[in-house]
Amino acid sequence: MINSNIQIKFLKQFILTLFIIQLSLFSFSQTEYEVVEAKKGDGIFVLLRRHGLNPSQHLNSFIALNQSVLGKNNSLISGKKYKLPPLPFSEKTVAANTKILPIFGDKYKTVTITSSELKNAVYYLVSGHGGPDPGAMGKYGNYQLCEDEYAYDITLRLAKSLIEKGATVYVITRDPNDGIRDDSFLKVDKDEVCYPNSTIPLNQTKRLKQRKNAVNKLYQKHRGSFQRMIALHVDSRSKGENIDVFFYHDKRSKTGMRATKILQKTFQKKYDTHQPNRGYHGTVSTRNLYMVRNTWPVALYIELGNINHYRDQQRFILPDNRQALAKWLTEGLIEDYKTNK
After folding, report:
1. What is the average per-residue pLDDT within 30-47?
2. Is the pLDDT of residue 27 over 60?
3. Which pLDDT does position 329 carry in this prediction?
4. 226-235 and 298-306: which strand pairing?
5. What does the angle CA 187 – CA 192 – CA 193 come to, to the nearest 5 degrees?
6. Mean pLDDT value across the chain
7. Distance of alpha carbon 72 from its chain centroid, rounded?
8. Dihedral over Cα of 36, 40, 42, 43: its sign
9. To the nearest whole percent, how much of the chain has pLDDT over 70?
10. Partners of residue 103 on adjacent β-strands
11. Which pLDDT score is estimated for 51?
12. Sign of dihedral through CA atoms 30, 33, 35, 41?
């Protein structure tokens, strides 16, 4: 009786495994794949890396997709064509002015281009920290607030807003499944990657170098275009210190100084309109930051507030406020573009 029960249990598990495999293959069949040709001497790792895919993340799905055309021990055959696993951030144009961008999540993935105000402008958006590093951390009641989650959500909202105005946008720090979230308390995870799909290292120097290299490689691709690198962070200070959004630029860059001052003036006008008695004290200054110093586009580094101060926390935990930050930044960046066009 015991052996019979074990056999039945094993059979059920086997059937479930087959079902999952079939379901996975069905999901693959509904997707359009990029097809590439293997070169002499290629292995799967080499092929995946050549096309911007992390082997540790995509090896199994590659094998599942291409099992029928793989050689012995899953080797590649020179001259054969292979399907690449789809990136979770791919876009699809469904109309002249509408794109499907899964990176924004199911609710916000349909993006409609509403104007050409930022046509020919290219932006590289780098939200702070991510992967193994959550960045600054604060507490709100029983909830933990992590810099990387809130900076990323605002970054996505800014990216969507810029695309709607006709800009080309690259999100450098990316999460495969978060999308734009309307929750107040954003779930913490560590699965962010660096564009196009590289695992983020724990070491801070390597992490910054990885992001710098991603930006500079894309900069060369768009040489001659209007380009900006925008880094978004959340500061960490004492609980008693309320701060406004403030800006850094490279001391060598007059264009960077002018751009950050335009953003500062935009925020000043918004506060004068929406909170006329509050005042706004966000500053513009230089700072010897790695991403500001080493990326080739004009660099703007933005601190969004103090993650430990109650009033600043409202700027992050309320989704309408995160959206307002993205909207105001977009308006300032449009003015920057017009000034330098």
Report:
1. 84
2. no
3. 98
4. parallel
5. 175
6. 90
7. 38
8. positive
9. 90
10. none
11. 78
12. negative
Q: Which residue has the higher pLDDT, 2 or 153?
A: 153
- CA-based radius of gyration for the chain: 23
The type of residue at 239 is: K
Provide the token pair at 253. Answer: 């860059």
Inform me whether the pLDDT recorded for 318 exceeds 70. yes
Query: CB burial class (10 A; 0-12, 13-18, 19+) of residue 57?
Result: middle
The residue ranking higher by pLDDT, 148 or 3, is: 148
- Residue 156 · residue 164 · CB < 8 Å: no
Comparing C-alpha atoms, which of 231, 234, 264 is closest to residue 246? 264
Signed CA dihedral, 257, 262, 277, 236: sign only? negative
Evaluate whether 90 touches 102 at the Cβ level (below 8 Å).
Answer: yes
Using CA atoms, how far apart are residues 88 and 85, in angstroms rounded to an integer?
9
pLDDT of residue 23 exceeding 70, the answer is no
The pLDDT of residue 12: 54
For residue 16, what pLDDT is reported? 46
Q: Map the chain to HEC letters.
A: CHHHHHHHHHHHHHHHHHHHHHHHHHHHHCCCCEEEECCCCCCHHHHHHHCCCCHHHHHHHHHHHHHHHCCHHHCCCCCCEEEECCCCCCCEEEECCEEECHHHCCCCCEEECCCCCCCCEEEEEEECCECCECCCEEEECCEEEEHHHHHHHHHHHHHHHHHHCCCEEEECEECCCCCCCCCCCCCCCCCCEECCCEECCCCHHHHHHHHHHHHHHHHHHCCCCEEEEEEEEEECCCCCCCCCCEEEECCCCHHHHHHHHHHHHHHHHHHHHHCCCCCCCCCEEECCCHHHHHCCCEEEEEEEEECCCHHHHHHHHCHHHHHHHHHHHHHHHHHHHHHHC
79 pLDDT more than 90: yes
Residue type, 99: K
CB-based contact 151:99 (threshold 8 Å) = no
| Euclidean distance between CA atoms 131 and 149, whole angstroms | 10
Looking at the predicted structure, is the pLDDT value of residue 144 above 90?
A: yes
